[in-house]
Amino acid sequence: MIKDPSVSLIASSSHRILCNLSLYYPYPTPNQALTPTNRFYRDYHVKCAPPSPQLHKEVLKEEMKKDDVYVKPFDRIDAFAFDEQVADVFENMITRSVPGYGHFLELIGLVAERFSQPGSRCYDLGCSLGASTLMLRRHVPANCHVVGVDNSAAMVERCRANIQRDHSGATIEIREEDLKDTPITNASVVVLNFTLQFIAPDDRPRVLKNIAAGMIPGGALVLAEKIAFEDEREATFMTDLHHDFKRYQGYSDLEIAQKRAALENVLVPDSLATHRARLLSAGFETVYEMSRSLNFTSLICVR
Question: 160-181 burial, b for 16+ CB within 10 Å, e for fewer?
């Protein structure tokens, strides 16, 4: 039985909506750990029918690897990197670190349904394990081509393995390369899902101009980012709430402090005003905020 009431409601009303949920939707096990529902929702996607009892049992056995990267105290905190250690626990890390992460993924599917055009290309720049890539692929016409890009070998290896298990119609490729070097052509949808914040600030305008130049008229960019606040009191308040969220997810004060130190000068957020001005300057005609959860936002930018 699915314990999350929101998922129960969806399941009772529409198998189609359920099969379109994120590949990485958390699922409670009897011991309350969180486990991925890869095969659970894949069974819905392929068969549009409830999974077999045996499949259900197999899913319950597959516990998500818990993020323990910063559990022990370090004498020296190295800069955060998307290496093997992070890739192994990234699913757990991002769902416990970004409030509303599953909702942000669903918005990608929503935008893909509305803006993807037959015969076009759709890009996920900074695809990590492939959650946003698969959300794209499952919501675009079958004659689209999906391109996932990531510069982390550890992420690309796992992303390719996840993609191989998906049976959606659109063709797909996963590239290991720096997204700053990725040519964008004939694009109807592009996704930057918590990616731009890891690119050097001076390089961000060029990345966005490259994307806008390669998009067809009426195409859309989904930009999800952690944001900075111009008002100091608001910034402190939102940071405190975000840390409370992490504690609620089971992170200790030590883990929160050490990861924050590791991300210093690696993840550099911009204000919403900075994002808007830069996107308009890059060539996007409209920029709207679709959703916000604490200090995380999702923007839709139409070419």
Answer: eebbeebebebebebbeeebee
